[in-house]
Structure formats: C-alpha cells, structure tokens
Records
---
Amino acid sequence: MKTIGLIGGMSWESSIEYYRLINEEVRRRLGGLHSAECVMYSVDFADIEAMQAEGRWDDAGSRLAEVARRLELAGADFLVLCTNTMHKVADAVENAVSVPLLHLGDTTADAVLRAGVQRVGLLGTGFTMEQEFYRDRLASHGLDVSVPGPEDRDLVHRVIYDELCLGVVRDESRRAYQQVIGRLIDAGAQGIILGCTEIELLIGQEHVAVPVFPTTRLHAEAAVAAALA
C-alpha cells in the first residue's frame, strides 16, 4: 500500500471526513482490520483564510508548498490537497515536490463523465465559483459548467465560512441551498458538483433531484484506488 500525504485543515471539519472516508474505503476493499497508510499535515485555517480574503495567493501557495515538502519527507508517495478552493495553488504544490498530486478537479470530472453527465452546476466558495482555476480544469475534460447568480453565490459562500467550517449544520441553510440548486437545474444543469469539501456536511443525494457529485468522497475514493494500485 502506498502512503497518502494529506494536506488538511482547510477546514479541519472536512479533513475529518477525508480521514474517515479513506479509512472506510480501505476497510471496504481489504476487509478485517486494514486501514490506510497515510500522513496528514493540518494547517491553521485562520492563516490561510486571511490569505484568501486578501488575495495573497502566492503566499498561500508558498505555505502549502512547504507543507507538501514536509509530507514528502515524511514518506508520502503522493499528495491529496483536502480542499477545492486551494487547488488554485495546485501548481505551486506540485512544483515543490517530486511525488504526484492527485488533483481533485480531475477525479471529479472523471466521475461526472462516468455518470454520463456533461452539463453541471458548481457550488463552492466564492473563489471556486467565480475564478477560472477550477471551472477551467473541469471544462478541460469537456464539461459544460455553470454557477449560481451573484446573490446565490454570496449565500453559498457565507454558509460555508460562517456555518459549515465551524461545524454548524442548519436545516434553514439546507433549504436555501436546495433552492439555489433548483435554479441551476432549471437553467439546464444535469448534475450538481458539491465543489467545497464542507458542503457534503449539508447536502447529499437525498436532497437533490439530479445526480450529485460529492468531491470529498470522490477524492477519498480516488486516493485509496491510487494507494492500492
């Protein structure tokens, strides 16, 4: 089994999910008392969030590149960046190490295409929905990606940072997300990408009428497949 290097802490609420899902998938595949060979570095998210808010993406890239180097020195055979938004600095992480990075955008796109879906709605932080780094990665696989309108984007972003990253899951926010998703479906989305690792704390397939693509679970499953290959 290869050793998975997890760059976590953004937020730790979703990093817990990564650790749980990876180990559950190893146990499902291998049975018995098997669990994942992995190392995790969990950053202080307050520092990273400040860099995001201030547009200091080069600083954020340097910080996560340092983390990547430490994980490689700790024995990681490949890296998993446990956050959608910080894939904006994926190149900085990849360039800092000699081991590969399992890109979340690629694993998500693969799952969407396997499901026979091409037109998808994307939910995530404001950075993920509004900037090109993530949408373009999905589009490079042939996907047609749409995002909510400005007011809906603000709502989705606020719930992530003010609630989900703090472990707060509210039925009222779930209903608001369902309304946002409904408008994406009305506009032609055939599936919905939950493009922020915390959104899976709030929304599941049972809440949506079209296929949902939970990026945390998909990334975790892809990490296990790579570790056991």
---
Amino acid sequence: MSTASPVKTTAVAAQGVWKAYGQGEAQVVALRDVSVEFASGAFTAIMGPSGSGKSTLMHCLAGLDTTDRGTVGIGDTTITGLGDKALTKLRRDKIGFIFQQFNLLPTLTAEENITLPLAIAGAKADPDWIKRIIHTLDLTDRLSHKPTELSGGQQQRVACARALASRPEVVFADEPTGNLDTRSGAEVLNFLRTSVDDFGQTIVMVTHDPNAAAYADRVVFLADGQIVEDMADPTADKVIDKMKHFEELVAAAQGENA
C-alpha cells in the first residue's frame, strides 16, 4: 500500500515585497513586487545576473534588511516591522547563515567557532547533534585547529556546522562556494544537500553557478528585481540554457506587468 508524501509547510514567504535604494534620479529599485514561498525541508537556489536583486531578496528574507513595502514571514512569524531586539532574537533562534567569506573568529578553534552562536545565546548545545554534524562534515580531527590552520574548504565546512548547530528553521547561504575550488565547493554543496535529505533542513542559497544550483530542488530566477522563472528539478544544463534566454524572460515579465 502506497503512503502519501507529507505535505510540506512554508518555511519562508515574501508577499508583494518592494525594495529601493537611493532617492530621485539616483534611485535603484532592487525588488519589484516580489511574492515567493520556500517550502520547509527543501533546497532552493536563487539565481540571476549581477544587479538582479537576488542578494537583496535573501537579505530581506533573513531580516538583514528591511522592505519598503510588502511582508516577509519565517514560519509563523511575520518579521516585517519587528524591532531590532526581536529581529536579533529571531535570527539567533531560527536562522543559520553561511556566507562567501567564512566569517570565523581567528582566535577561536573550529569547535569554539561552531558552538559560538549557542554560547552567545546562552543556549545549551545538543552534543549528539553537534557530533553528528561534525562527523558528516569530516571535521572530527580539525576541532582544535584555528582558522589559519585550516584550508578554505575546511573553514567553510566549519561555517556550515556553525549554521546548523542550533537546528535553525532555515539556513540562508550567500554564494557559499564563491571562494572555494571545485573540489571544496562540491564538498560543501554535498553537505547542504545531505542536510536537506537526511536532517530535514531548509536551505535557501544565492548563487551564480549553474553547477551549484543543480544541487537544489528548485531554482528561482530573478532579473531587474522580478521573478522571471521558477524551475523545479534543475540540472546544470537546464540552468545554463535558461540563463542564455534571460533577455526573453525579462521582456515577457515586463509585458505581463505592463
């Protein structure tokens, strides 16, 4: 007897989001009426050319930047309009971050960097969970090393472990393989894929790399601050082909909104 797949809930949602920078003739509209949802337990990539708004969208979704109009929600919490103290608590409790720059503290060991956010929050680490992440990332024999004693790939794996240490509702990854060689990048992407498949983690990743996007379940394409395509089950070839026709996608999106 077949068993129905569990219905995925929404981990992150944006509704009618606008964001602009500057004033008057110098104003740049980074996001134009963007509405999108990201399912829990799924790996979604956000792609687009430089200046498309992909990083701005991620920053608004993660509460790192404010919206001019529209709303953003994480789980059951609407983060739009929250004060600084409430936003800080939400980011600490519900969100993990992985950046292109590893952002590790040089005076701390790998293990101390991994557990630092929990220590700052005064939260007790789950030793079994931390051990599982460390084992999955093959960092067991690197825990006493400081960042300068680690390769770039190892540093980013430490950053990945830090992002998952608190079991966040969603992990936002901004070009996580941008500073890595091909092999190290593949190790990080394989871990992100594993964290979704085995741990039920939700990942939202900004990338410009079609090969990185191919690890995701879905790719959302942005251009000129608008979503112009939403692709399920991406492959590198499908993503490359889509990006070759970006001008057509933008023209179609503009025509629909005219």
---
Amino acid sequence: MCQFHDPAAAPPRKRYSRNFDGPWRKTPDRLFGTALVRLYQLTLSGFVGNSCRHLPTCSEYAYEAIARHGLWSGGWMALFRVMRCGPGGTHGLDPVPEKLGPEFAWYLPWRYWRCSACKK
C-alpha cells in the first residue's frame, strides 16, 4: 500500500529567522528601523565578521529593541549596546528588556545606557 503525502494535512513549517519573531506593532518608524538593521545584516555584516561578544548579537539586539520599543527608544538602546560591545566593554547574555520602566523617558535618552541592568 502506498500512502501519498497530503500537503494540506501537514502542519505549517515554522520559518527560521535569527531576528525577533514575536508580536510587535508594525508602525512606519519600526518598519524603517528594522529594515535598516536587516539591510546591514544582509550587506555589511558579512564583512565586519563574527566578533560580537554578546548573545544575541548587536544587530539582533537592535532589531528586537526597535521592534519592541520603537525607533527612538530602541535606536538609543541599540547604539549603547554597540558601544558596550567595543574593546573593554561587556560580554555575555544581554537580552532586550520586555518593558521599560518609567525612568526611561523619551526626553532622557542617556538613561538607556543603563538598560542592560533593567531586565524585566
């Protein structure tokens, strides 16, 4: 007996992506920011090399931070993360916080430097 494969009966395959795939509001600023990060990942990232000392990498962190918190907040978080990744900087696990506290106001962008300590 031969059994035929029915594609309609197969469960949908989960698409693998190294970037954040959770739910996020797709506003124009977030789409623009994540598109810039993705453009970097597809073009320049291969020339820079695999030298990020954090997990997730700096570009994955930037993508998720912008997707979760918007271009302004996520962009500042990503900039400070890249600065922490430099020589003499930090290393190890550094996930994007799910929610930002009230001390991280949009008009106080320098406070995002401490965002690596504000996990959950």
---
Amino acid sequence: AKCGACGPGYRSPLEAMKGPREQIVYLPCIHNNTGIAKPDYLATVDVDPSSSKYCQVVHRLPMPHVGDELHHSGWNACSSCHGDVTKRRNRLILPSLISSRIYVIDVETDPRAPRIHKIVEPSEVMGKCGLANPHTSHCLGSGEIMISSLGDLAGNGKGGFILLDGENFAVKGNWERDGQAAPFGYDFWYQPQHNVMVSSEWGAPKALSHGFRPEDMKAGEWAISLTPTHYPNPTHSSPHTLRSAASDLLHVACLAHPTIGGQAVQCADTKGRRCGKTLGKFPYSERLIIIPQKKVCGMLLGAIPGVITDILISLDDRFLYFSNWVHGDVRQYDIKDTHKPRLVGQVFFGGSILKGGPVKVVEDKELETQPKPRFVQGKRIQGGPQMLQLSLDGKRLYVTTSLFSAWDKQFYPEVMKEGSVMLQIDVDTEKGGMTINEDFLVDFGKEPDGPVLAHELRYPGGDCSSDIWL
C-alpha cells in the first residue's frame, strides 16, 4: 500500500477496499495442551489462487520457548499513522497469553519468511507494569503500541494496558492511571475522533487456564462488564460500566468510518448472546441481536447459549460478521441501518449441536433440525468457527477453528488430536449471503511436528480488524 509521501496503510477505509488482494496470511500455531512439547510458531500460509503453493504453509517461525500460547497479534504501525512518512508497517507484535512474552516479528526483510526482531521478556512487562497475560495489540497514532492484559503476576484478573515504544519496543509503562485498571481484561478498540476507547473483559487467567467451570463464574472469576473510557487521556476515564445482565463480554469492533459516532460491540446474558451498540455518551447501549440459547441434554449445561468469540465489520460498514463458536455457525448481518441489523448470511460447520453427536437439542427457537456434520475436501470439520478475517474488498471471509487451548481441549477434544483448520467463505457483497469455498482448506493436523491449533489471521498490508483511522 505505497502512495509516495504517505505513511503505512490507507488514507481511508474505502481506499483500503481498493487495495491488492491478499497473497499470504500469518497465523500463530499453538502446541499447548496438544501433548506435543514443542514451541508455538508463526505460520505463513499462501492464499493466492494462482500460486503453486495455494492453501499451503510456506514458512514456520518457531519461538525459542515452549508454553507461550501465542494468541492475538497487531502491528507496530497502521493506517492511524498514514500521514507520517517516517512510519512503516514492518513489525508484527505477537503477545503470548500464558508466558506473557511479547515477540516483535520482522515481516519486512522477507514477508514470506518472517524472523524474530526482538523479545520483550515477561520480567520487563511485569516489573514496569505489574501486568501479565497480554492479549490485544493496537498501534496508536502517537507511534506507540498498546496491549491489553488479562491479569496480574498471581493470575488474578487485572484489565490494564501495556505501552510499548514504537521504535525500540521497550516497555514504557501503563497507559491507565493508578487504580484505574478494570477487574478483568480482554479486547479493546479506540476511536480517536470521538475520544473514546471501549474495552471488554473475560476472566481471571488462573480460572481460564482450567477451562470453563461454573464454580468460577459463581466465585466472581468471570467478566461482567464492558468499559468505555475517554481516549487518549486516561485521566478523564469514566467510571461508568455497561453491565445490564451480561455474563461475559468478548471482542469489540468499531465502525470503520470515524465520522460515524458508533461502536459495535459484543455482549451476552444468560438468555442468549447479544450484540449491542454504544453510541456517543457512554451509558447508552442498544441490544440489537439476540441469539436464543438451545435447551439440550448430554452436555454439562442444560442450555447452550450463543458464544460469540470473534466479531468484525466490513470496511464500508455494510456488514457485520461474528462466529458463534459453540453453536457452530458464522453469521452475516446487513447493518446499513445500524439500529436494525438484518441476518443475510449463515453457514454451519463444527459446533456442539451436530446431528448424530452426544448432544441432543430438545428446544431450539431458530433451527428445525440439528445441523449435519460438514466436510470440506473429504475432511470432517471439527471444533467450531472461531477467529475471522475479511479480505479488504469484503469478498472473502477466512475462518479458523481454535479458541484457546484449555477451552479447545474441554469443548472439542477431537481438535487436540486432529488439529484446527482454516477455511474460506465466499461473500455476496451486494445482497448478502455466504457459501463455503469447497476448494480451500488448510489442515493444521498435518503439520510436520503434529497437530497444532491455528488462531488469529493477519495480512501483511493490514486488515479490517487491526487498522484504525484518525
């Protein structure tokens, strides 16, 4: 995305939609809980249909340690620095959810074969910030990098933010002021033109590492809020928290166009998954999408709520997508009228309610029958749809099927044996609608050292879930 005297990224979201088609993607691949004592690695996958390596892992960059649990990634610079000619999007920031290391990856020297540029050790993160378990990374217009955290050194919940220097990647300290960390942490997104940042919560790391346990929820070890905060000056942080009846709040996504005053976010309650929108003033929120829970037998819980584990919005703000990990579907909503989202696309694969499986659905307000198992190129898709990434033009939606190794092991033990997969969904960008591309499959069960869990996807040139416009 070069434009002469411009910095990284694109001038606007609509300009980004005219960018080149993705040719490679980066994915962290995790060995934790698979029984394979090998380091996690960053995989480079060829997604160019004209390439002889199409749908293949063309490079693997192993980390130097075992047990990191690579998770989400971000950039040293993105479209928020587009006006700064001194900035380049040349480093991928790759935090480790369990070890608390932060890897800085050089993707400029050879984009198809990344290399480690620097390692920020846990001692530096913990010593300067008192934080651990880093999760979401965003580049800031200031040139700094901000990373949300889930906990403290003892594994308790602590939703603070780590600031890295954007040049030498040294830990600068905390973004939030003393005493302003949320009880828990997870994802975040900021919108500079509206001076707002929205962060979500998950739970205490010491509880999450054991998988889902109802007793942890009763003990208050789980997230219950969505916190809007003034940005960029945390001194003006609002103490207001959007709680309602929420039991957990995961990923956050803002509308791409900063002139529109809204942030689309996820939230949930015990009656079903809800996708809401906060507008302008912090206390205001709308519950726009409700996914009814399904009453079942043959599972720990008597009813399965929708569990939305990723969410994104197309760069023209036309469609919203989310993955419903436990039910097993990916949904597409037309949000041209942001107050009245319309379901226009839905595909099922994997999930816990498949026909012929151990779980029998006894009451379902959405489906007449349980979904059938899905096969792509002869392989049965295990697990459930998890991380999403949309092409810049909005026509291709990539999906992976691993959430977090401890939870994968509990909910989908077959994925630990067979590895996760990466699929591609073709999108109708005119009327809405989605179909699985039967010619696309990356099977991470066939990796050289055994099955791995592939997680979040990133394009070298940026994407709709990492770029922010000022």
